[in-house]
Write a structure and sequence with these properties.
DNA-binding, elongated, 9 helices, homotetramer, mainly alpha, about 210 residues
DNA sequence: AATGAATGAGGTTTCATTCAT
DNA sequence: TATGAATGAAACCTCATTCAT
């Protein structure tokens, strides 16, 4: 015997966890985090009340697991973009954003929950989210200053304001196309639009001689 | 007797309402909407349980009142901008945004509550917020198409994407400067930055001859 | 001046009382005694909460007043039957019962309230009702024994059982024709039927020679 | 494992139910339905507030259960009477009534509650009671018309009035001997008296030749 | 490992009553 | 006399959590 039994048990545990997570996702989506009770979760999962506590210590632990899952997915997607390859920063940005949009779109229910409910929750949830935000902000700042060095970016920018604008643009595009709507969309095309908007704004390309 | 008594009573009622609203605001800010109980509210207001229900029919009614108050302030501030064509659209946008930022900054605690908690609440709250969003979106769309007519705006824009970017930019700037931070700021300068970013992006002004 | 003011005041008091009693009757009929709150009563009466307490010390005091009113009406009606006149006891019973039915029918809303709700109420209500019951029971017993003396009544009756049967018959007839139904009815005819039933039952008049 | 555990659990559940029902009966008897609070019930049952709601969804659900229990008992008792025509209808009536009286007497506390409090309660309670009433009324009507065919019943009866009298007689006898009094009684003898009264009234058997 | 009955603190809401005006 | 805002006890009900089986 030896490991066989342990392994099988571990696998069973993982499956149970998944089962609870999946059904919880549906309930959260349906009723909203705060209106959902442990009773709702165990009922949806089809397990006994006690069993739930064998796998999660609280409702917010379930949510935290979901959040980690989504953040993991996004990080995985983003890290797939090779930063050393021979494409312009602009193109890199488009690719990153497109991948993010695709990933979130592939996990729409989860994304919805997180975007709609991950507010005013646990302290830990807030922390993890703002850490993520911070990473993005840092990356944007870095990219902006890099662009400045290459004169690809204006010098008179207030990077605090501009990075906020950039983040907000991305966040709202996610809200509009992934969270609020249910339609499929062309992630690449949208990503390109966003990046182009960020680079040159809405004004027409200034024509020489104007 | 006449109205004297009635008037005084009405005034007292208004004051009580305000007293409850103000203390509730502090509690919501402190504990978060969902973790706040009616008990917390009455305790903070220093009134009896029953008194609370004389003025509000539920916790969410209190929140709704706050929301209406903030939306009213913002609408008032915005409507003060001179719509006559004495100033450019760009300058109008800057002024509107600056006023919004100022108003929200003047009501920081209230703004924080709304931005942090008005998500996944009541159906009515969601409705009122999305109605407000819709108004802004409509205004932006209108302005964009106006700009297109005057060739002040590129013709190849996906207005859905771009209006999302614009709204997101504004929303995030509010988050960054009003909600998350506690510092004073120069609303006009920030507004100008945002509008400029929206118009010409982060790229350096293309030089004639490049 | 002197009495004029006092009198007028007394009259005003009586009117207020009546106003409250009348509207309370409607509310009791509508919601049932136990589901009616003082708030309901003052709202229906169109007076302030405090005013109610100037006239009645509690909800059950209102009910007690109504009960007394109905009992008074019934007693008045019954006492109108001259017991010394030259009609048979049987005819007297018919007249009494007919008058009771008529009186209750004339006060249907009030009767309904009393019959439907005067159960499990105040101790005082119970007392007053059972005192009334007792009076009727005594009267029946008296009449039965009188009848026995005149050989108008069987000698082998268990007066306890029979008086219960008689009272029950009357009570249920009231329930059926006054309380449950809304139709007009011929009180005299019904009274006659009840008395006849009481005297000779449902069996056919035994024919001589059977 | 198998069913052993499930079975035992089911039995425990039934016992708990009974425990709550029994103690609730005592409390209702003591304080009256409307003056009884859930707190009173749980205190009397010696269980936690939450436990009560595991077994009954409201106070009125408890009452409804009691009502069903009593109606069930009565129906069971009545259905035990031999409907074959070996005995006269008169004797059948006596037996049925005697059994009803015995059954109610065997469940005096329950009977008291139902008779004293089942008025102006739930809509559902009213419904169930009037359904029961209707069954009895129908049975009486049927028996009367049957009697008419056999000339055992007068032809000039107003069946509406007479059936009301009969029902009332029975109801009041129950009130007098089971509900109001605490004494034992001879159900058969009382039943016979009631039936005899119903058949021939209080008048002396008319003597041939009078 | 899994169960689900039991718990009781704590949530929301109602309501009879008082009392300053 | 009339008012109605204020009160706070007490009603109803929910729910996260435990624990014996």
């Amino acid at each position: 015997m030896g490991d066989g039994r342990t392994e099988r048990a571990a696998k069973a545990r993982t499956q149970r966890r998944r089962q609870i997570l999946d059904s919880s996702l549906r309930v959260f989506a349906d009723k909203g985090y705060w209106r959902t009770s442990i009773s709702d979760l165990v009922q949806a999962a089809g397990v006994a009340r006690g069993t739930f506590y064998l796998y999660f210590e609280s409702k917010s632990a379930v949510f935290l697991d979901m959040l980690d899952e989504l953040l993991g997915c996004v990080e995985g997607a983003v890290s797939g973009v090779d930063p050393t390859q021979e494409i312009s920063i602009q193109e890199q940005l488009v690719q990153i954003l497109a991948r993010v949009l695709e990933t979130l779109s592939d996990n729409r229910p989860l994304t919805r929950i997180i975007f709609r409910e991950a507010v005013g929750l646990d302290h830990e949830v807030e922390q993890r989210l703002s850490r993520f935000d911070e990473q993005i902000r840092t990356y944007l700042m870095h990219t902006l200053s890099l662009g400045e060095q290459f004169s690809a970016v204006r010098q008179d920018l207030d990077t605090q304001v501009v990075s906020a604008c950039l983040m907000g643009a991305v966040r709202e595009v996610i809200q509009a196309f992934v969270v609020r709507s249910d339609d499929r969309f062309d992630a690449h095309s949208i990503a390109r639009q966003v990046v182009e908007f960020s680079l040159v704004g809405v004004a027409p390309k200034s024509q020489p001689g104007t």
